[in-house]
Specification:
The longest helix is centred in the N-terminal third of the chain and has 30 residues, at 6-35. This protein has 180 residues and is mainly α. It has helices spanning 6-35, 52-59, 62-75, 79-87, 94-115, 126-152. It has one domain. Helix 2 packs antiparallel against helix 3, helix 4 (79-87) packs across helix 6 and helix 5 (94-115) runs antiparallel to helix 6. This is VanZ family protein. It comes from Streptomyces xanthii. Residues 24-142 form the VanZ-like domain.
Amino acid sequence: MQRHRSGGHRAAVRFRTAGLVVLAVHLLLVAWFTLRPLDVPWVSAANLHPLAGIRADLALGWRAGGRRIGEGLLLLAPLGVLLPLAGGRLHVSAWGSLLRTVAAGALISLGIELLQTGVPGQVVDVDSVLLNTVGVAIAHAAVVPALRARLRRRPDLAPLPREEPAQGPTPTIPRVGIAP
């Protein structure tokens, strides 16, 4: 457990609280956008073949295809920053943080796709899971390491040095041999 100076503790709690609030708002907006029923005359079949939807989007042309791919990348990309911010830890492994964040983003995206199976007008697309996960990874890699480094340099967020126990080190007792 990290101990912070009283001002640093308050600052860390503020960052974490702000991260949780913005994360909740973002997830509510994503749920509204992706899970609301749509009034459409027909619905295309579900795409369960990886990269088939991306190829079809690119076949539409760079402009239309790029827009659809960009929407897939950007939908959950803020989670790449908001999940670590809500976690509130500054001193963690960069690779471990990336792996946890990408895994959480992939699970959230998969959950959204599974929930869409029961929503009229919404179609399941495995490429959405791939694009959303890549978007989370790109956002995390682009922002979080630099943000954590900057926050670690703030003096009010620096951890206190470890203190030795008041009694000193624990004494050791030499082994006693067994009598013959």
